């Protein structure tokens, strides 16, 4: 039997070392790669925070108060960051849905950033992008309130009596002619109109004070100066010098409109004055129109 | 152990030296790798804690600040200075953040966010003279908070940073920074 030599050759040792170093290099690369990714994730997180902040700010504004264009990229200085540069910009694009033609604003926030290399140069720029929309409001309101000076008695609207028991349209006078409230919504709306009028009569009913019960005031609501909506109120001055009315106007088209409140006194005796008025219009989305 | 006659199974000196060198190299590699891995895990855990605490603090502010009905005079921001910011913010808001009653001041609490002497970012909640302090970000992370405003008078900009006291590996940033926007519902933050 020949003697068997079982030692390791030099080549085998070298091969083993090469394999071992390859494995260790891979492990080291994985570890350092993990750190590099963590570093990038940190800056991406900051960029996302900035983008989210600017988006929250944009969404907190109303449809009409929000942007209508694109801002130029601006440097973010909030972090006092020496390791990266962050720039943000917002784009607001007015758009409209295909089916219902409801307008909305498409908001896009872009935060671009570049990490600084150890030699001070900037790495390739990266960016995060967030998108959202600000829809056209479902409900709008318009309101108007006027109080005249009670102490001076300086009322701009004094109304003389009409001629007949049932006044003609010509007898009605506008409250703050020619229009009380104007609006131009971008989609069809249903309107709820509520108005209150405070009336004062002048003590010129000769020997009767307060005025007799047949002294009444009519009010009515017109849209675009040609259509009367809701009921025409008739209120005795003696018992209720405060007049209120509520009416609904459906399917108001998406174009400029005006609302007027008119009033008239009946019968043809005495004189009344408008002390104050308050008008509120609620406009909400016309559901049947959308369907 | 039976030794066969004529068998030469021992190690030469050269073999022993080479084996020892290889063993030392392997041992050092394993030791360094394990040390590095342990340090990496420590840093990951620390960063996770920093992120968690910053997120917790910002969520807390996001929940309490919108319902603020009064802001302390020393926390009001200057409208003429867009860069004005405070490191301490005191306001009156709902004691129960899930029950918003802005017209009822009786159920309110007085809140203060500030950095305490131990460097903790704390929330102090005062109800009927009783103050409860909650640590939001631990002092070991050296938190800094700035309450500013941006564009709108009722839109608060909260910048919160934390810094790891450890030496970071592979150029990892020591500072973690986050910004949050909070819209106040009932009051402006500037005058």
How would you spell out the order of helices and strands of chain A? HEEEEEEEEEEEEEEH
Structural class of chain B: alpha+beta
Most extensive protein-chain contact, per-chain counts: A-B, 37 and 38 residues
* Helical content class of chain B: 25-40%
Give the oligomeric state: heterodimer
What class would the helix/strand composition of chain A place it in? alpha+beta
Percent strand of chain A equals: 35-45%
Could you give a short account of the major beta sheet of chain B? Answer: 5 strands, antiparallel
Given as residue ranges, the uncertain stretches of chain B (5+ residues, pLDDT < 50) are: none
Largest sheet of chain A: 5 strands, antiparallel
If helices are DSSP runs of H or I spanning 4 or more residues, what is the number of helices of chain B?
Answer: 1
What's the gyration radius of chain B in Å? 29 Å
Count of individual domains of chain A: 2
Kindly identify the CATH topology of the largest domain in chain A. Jelly Rolls
> What is the general shape of chain B?
elongated
Mean model confidence by pLDDT of chain B:
88
Give the low-confidence spans of chain A.
Answer: 151-158, 160-166
Helix content of chain A: 10-25%
Rg from alpha-carbon coordinates of chain A: 38 Å
Order of helices and strands of chain B: HEEEEEEEEE
Measured distance between first and last alpha carbons of chain B: 95 Å
């Amino acid at each position: 039997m020949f003697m068997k030599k079982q030692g390791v050759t030099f080549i085998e040792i070298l091969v083993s070392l090469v394999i071992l170093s390859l494995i260790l290099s891979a492990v080291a690369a994985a570890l350092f790669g993990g750190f590099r990714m963590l570093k990038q994730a940190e800056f991406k997180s900051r960029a996302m925070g900035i983008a989210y902040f600017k988006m929250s700010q944009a969404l907190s504004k109303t449809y009409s108060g929000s942007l209508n264009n694109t801002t130029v990229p601006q440097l973010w200085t909030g972090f006092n960051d020496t390791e990266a540069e962050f720039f943000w910009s917002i784009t607001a694009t007015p758009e409209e849905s295909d089916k219902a033609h409801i307008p909305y604003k498409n908001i896009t926030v872009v935060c671009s950033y570049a990490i600084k290399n150890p030699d001070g140069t900037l790495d390739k720029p990266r960016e995060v992008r967030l998108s959202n929309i600000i829809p056209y409001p479902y409900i709008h309101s318009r309101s108007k309130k006027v109080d005249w000076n009670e102490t001076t008695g300086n009322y701009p609207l004094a109304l003389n009596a009409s001629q007949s028991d049932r006044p003609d349209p010509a007898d009605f006078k506008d409250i703050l002619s020619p229009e009380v409230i104007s609006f131009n919504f971008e989609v069809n709306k249903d309107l709820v109109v509520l108005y209150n009028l405070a009336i004062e009569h002048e003590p010129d009913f000769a020997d009767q004070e307060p005025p007799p019960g047949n002294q009444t005031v009519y009010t009515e609501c017109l849209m675009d100066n040609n259509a009367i909506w809701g009921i025409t109120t008739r209120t005795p001055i003696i018992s209720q010098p405060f007049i209120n009315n509520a009416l609904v106007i459906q399917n108001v088209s998406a174009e400029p409109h005006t609302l007027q409140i008119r009033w008239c006194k009946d019968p043809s005796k005495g004189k009344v004055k408008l002390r104050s008025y308050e008008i509120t219009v609620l406009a909400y989305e016309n559901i049947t129109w959308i369907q | 152990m039976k030794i066969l006659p004529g068998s030469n199974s021992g190690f030469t000196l050269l073999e022993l030296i080479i084996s020892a060198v290889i063993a030392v190299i392997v041992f050092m590699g394993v030791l360094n790798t394990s040390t590095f891995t342990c340090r990496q895990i420590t840093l990951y855990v620390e960063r996770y804690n920093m992120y968690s605490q910053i997120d917790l603090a910002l969520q807390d502010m996001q929940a309490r600040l919108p319902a603020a009905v009064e802001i302390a005079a020393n926390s009001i921001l200057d409208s003429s200075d867009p860069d004005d910011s405070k490191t301490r913010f005191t306001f009156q808001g709902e004691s129960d953040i899930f029950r918003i009653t802005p017209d009822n001041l009786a159920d309110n609490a007085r809140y203060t966010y500030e950095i305490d002497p131990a460097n903790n970012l704390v929330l102090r909640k005062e109800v009927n003279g009783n103050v409860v302090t909650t640590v939001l970000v631990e002092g070991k992370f050296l938190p800094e908070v700035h309450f500013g405003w941006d564009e709108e008078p009722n839109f608060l900009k909260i910048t919160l940073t934390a810094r790891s006291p450890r030496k970071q590996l592979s150029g990892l940033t020591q500072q973690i920074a986050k910004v949050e926007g909070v819209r106040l519902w009932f009051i402006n933050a500037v005058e």
